[in-house]
Design goal:
By secondary structure, the chain is an all-alpha fold. The protein has one domain. Helices cover 80% and strands 0% of the residues. The protein contains 4 helices and no strands. Helix 1 runs antiparallel to helix 2 and helix 3 (72-89) runs antiparallel to helix 4 (97-122). The protein is flat, with a radius of gyration of 18 Å. The N and C termini lie far apart (37 Å).
């Protein structure tokens, strides 16, 4: 119950930050929508919101007893979405080769895990 409340607070904060970013970009004109950093920031906020909403929905299934455990596929998909967010907001000028290699390895591992889960689900 407490975790669900915390996720709701995170969703509300993410929505307010996203709304302010879009408002300041479109209405006030403080931000240039063609600037690469602004683009990264806004899409990073959108994906953060999607991650929080998906996590909240998954927790609601468990809390309302519609599912007794969280499905592995959902957790893997949330992790892939988090990695996609990381790649979108990544500043290639400031990242090391080791960090890129680690992100690539994590992406490959999650992709293979998802593939294995799908193959296992489709086989009788």
């Amino acid at each position: 119950m407490i975790l669900t409340f915390i996720i709701i607070v995170i969703v509300i904060v993410a929505i307010s930050r996203l709304a302010y970013s879009v408002y300041s970009m479109l209405v006030i004109g403080m931000k240039d929508p063609l600037d690469h950093k602004v683009f990264q920031t806004i899409f990073g906020e959108i994906i953060t919101l999607l991650i929080a909403l998906e996590f909240s929905r998954t927790l609601q299934y468990v809390v309302t007893r519609q599912q007794s455990i969280i499905q592995t596929t959902v957790v893997v998909l949330i992790a892939i979405l988090a990695l996609a967010r990381k790649f979108i907001i990544l500043d290639l000028d400031k990242v090391s080769a080791g960090e890129l290699l680690g992100l690539a390895a994590a992406t490959l591992a999650l992709g293979l895990t998802y593939l294995i889960l799908k193959i296992r689900k489709n086989t009788p």
